[in-house]
Sequence to fold (553 residues):
Amino acid sequence: MADNNDLAELLFPDVTLTIDDLEKKYPLRNLPEGAQVTRFAPSPTGFLHTGSLFTAMISRTVAKTTGGVYFFRLEDTDTKRTIEGSGDLLLEQLHQFGIDADEGYTPNGDVGAYGPYKQSERKEIYRAVIKELIRRGRAYPDFCTPEDLDKIRASQEANKVLPGYYGIYARDRNLSVEQRIEKIKAGTPWVIRFKSMGDHDKKTKFTDAIRGEIELQDNDTDVVILKSDGLPTYHFAHVCDDHFMRTTMITRGEEWIPSTPIHLDMFRALGWKAPKYAHIPSIMKLDHGNKRKLSKRKDAEAAVSYFLESGYPAQSLLVYLMSIANSNFEEWAIANKTFDLSKFQFKIKKMSLDGALFDIDKLNYFSKEIIARMPLEELFAAVKEYASAHDAEFAARIGKNPEFVKKILNIERDRKNPRKDYAKFSDIYPLTKFFYADLWEEIIKKPLPFKESIDKATVKEILLASASEMVFGVDEYTWFSGVKALGEKFGFASSNKDYKEHPENYKGSVSDTAEILRVAITGSTQSPNLHEILEILGKEETSRRLTKVAESL
Ligand code: GLU
Fold:
């Protein structure tokens, strides 16, 4: 009589590799106690999503903070959804965020001893394990056509029971070995299913590193593990790969929670110790008052490229994501006066369970802090790179006079409380256009926002007097004393306090005097430090601007 060994030989005649061989080839990793082996395992189906970056960042951080290993595995078994080249693109995008793996798939070949790290190259491993499962009677060929499966589904609908290939609905589960062999020999197409011994009326319990104990219905579905194209399904590939790659913690999206009993069922069937699971919460968005998952179709922020193209430094997005991951991060960053993520002690247990709401204001807040603290040369290089990719006009101006741009970027930078004007590199050019004489000419063609309450004749007098009398090359205090004195000459209080006490005695305060100068020079009532602006423009250009505006009034 034929047995499962004969079945296994018939299905996989060429497979000589065994589970034992694999156990030897991929030995347990020699790591200190507590060190975690984590991975990021995307499918090459498109660009890097913000949620995936979040997951990858956490995976890497867990490994780094425990002295473990973080690797990258490409899960390319769904050939219909695979987009050529997107695996390499994902790696490149991760690299832009500094999320580089210790080992894994790379476009130039694998790095590390636990590969191949691309699932389509691991067929021999999957086939070896499946052959063994067939021998042990824990996997079997299923000959159902799509139409057969439709019929099963229809009967389940009619009986008002859950859909799926389980129990009495698992049509080919109880075929005899002879029947199986006969069908295979007749050339009937097959897939391989896992034979579950689970009981739907029982529970599977596991401890999630983020969520604590989770109890779910036991798996009793005989899921497909090997498809007709010879590639495994996610369920099986995950179990097999994470076992032989010696992963200790699975950090993956929370959408996988419901499938976990399937995975634990397989780990049990194989007699393997299951890794820890940490199901990462999804990033949510408020949409007309409703919380929903960030959607790759609806939301620009779902793609990390959106942030880079908008001109956010990569670090800003990472810092923002870390603030979602551990709510104590912000307090730590402020107390330690640093946004250096490598210094932060991330704790997976402290992750919030609720999907965090994406908050662009919070991202802008962090990003302003980060840009303000960047050393000048680093900021200049980043701005230059950003402009050459996204803003040809600004790039040309940087190319023509880099020192001028550096001076602009350096305004109120090198100090304890640096100025926080820019949340992204793309904010810089629009806010600094007035520095360029030709663009300033355009700005002053529009009505300038001088205060209505101050008569134009006075404005004109102040501008003309400043054009000839303003002092340059002095410190800000001395310069401002000059502005005060000049205002006084034309009836403005030299301090805001004097003005507030007796507004009837003055045309305005010293702030109004300064604002008149600011409006003429920048076209706006708001600008960075005026003294620094004037020093950058120089005496001649300042005087030309003040005179030109005065004459136009
Ligand atoms: N390829 C799966 C995905 O992209 C990976 C899930 C996991 O990390 O195990 O969702």
Residues 41-43, 75, 238, 250, 252-253 surround glutamic acid (CB under 6 Å). The longest strand covers residues 203-208.
